[in-house]
């Protein structure tokens, strides 16, 4: 890798997965520790003025964007301001910006898979914030890759997977929608995609733009939950025996979560040669790592 890579968010689950994968190929990252209050406009300005990397991978707010149950409006606003400044800095210093986004930029009203050509219409606060961030990045930093992920799963205790397993361990009622659809995407697979994109950008390929990636085989939260608990029972005692199906409209997050969130991944295949991997194959490693932390 000829480029010097700056990774913001190296301490979170996706950042750690990217560092692990990079180490297997002798690809290293500058991964500075964030200030106590988190990365903001002044700290990002100082950091990039001092370090001048060739590319920035912005995972600084990964947990809020992909794993948290809720994020406050004030937090979203601060993150939007910081990413806009990051884009301006990247443009000013001639750096590439690799910026993640999410299926949440769509409203979920169409049953077929969303392509990059479909017009975003986000429902909730997080989706609206991510859509504004996308627009900011496009406006201020032409040399960018925006990568929209499907349902990301990681090994954090407080994340989507961790909350499900905690309820199952405590014999709480587990209700999951049986009429939502999306692409589960283990965090190691997401890291593989990020690294593959960086390798081609390192070859001076001007492949700027917006791309979709999600694990192979769209499914429902109910089937995903049943599969996770089936795998987890061999590793840890779970009190919950069955998951109860619930309609999307009855879910507490129905107003913010797209009912249909399947992403079409043809563009990233044709442009970067990145093939989707089956999400089921990534669950054993993910669960093993999760239970090592518990």
TrEMBL record:
<comment type="function">
    <text>Catalyzes the reduction of dTDP-6-deoxy-L-lyxo-4-hexulose to yield dTDP-L-rhamnose.</text>
</comment>
<keyword id="KW-0560">Oxidoreductase</keyword>
<dbReference type="InterPro" id="IPR005913">
    <property type="entry name" value="dTDP_dehydrorham_reduct"/>
</dbReference>
<dbReference type="InterPro" id="IPR029903">
    <property type="entry name" value="RmlD-like-bd"/>
</dbReference>
<dbReference type="GO" id="GO:0019305">
    <property type="term" value="P:dTDP-rhamnose biosynthetic process"/>
</dbReference>
<feature type="domain" description="RmlD-like substrate binding">
    <location>
        <begin position="3"/>
        <end position="291"/>
    </location>
</feature>
<dbReference type="GO" id="GO:0008831">
    <property type="term" value="F:dTDP-4-dehydrorhamnose reductase activity"/>
</dbReference>
<keyword id="KW-0521">NADP</keyword>
<comment type="similarity">
    <text>Belongs to the dTDP-4-dehydrorhamnose reductase family.</text>
</comment>
<dbReference type="GO" id="GO:0009243">
    <property type="term" value="P:O antigen biosynthetic process"/>
</dbReference>
<dbReference type="InterPro" id="IPR036291">
    <property type="entry name" value="NAD(P)-bd_dom_sf"/>
</dbReference>
<dbReference type="GO" id="GO:0005829">
    <property type="term" value="C:cytosol"/>
</dbReference>
<dbReference type="Pfam" id="PF04321">
    <property type="entry name" value="RmlD_sub_bind"/>
</dbReference>
<comment type="pathway">
    <text>Carbohydrate biosynthesis; dTDP-L-rhamnose biosynthesis.</text>
</comment>
<protein>
    <recommendedName>
        <fullName>dTDP-4-dehydrorhamnose reductase</fullName>
        <ecNumber>1.1.1.133</ecNumber>
    </recommendedName>
</protein>
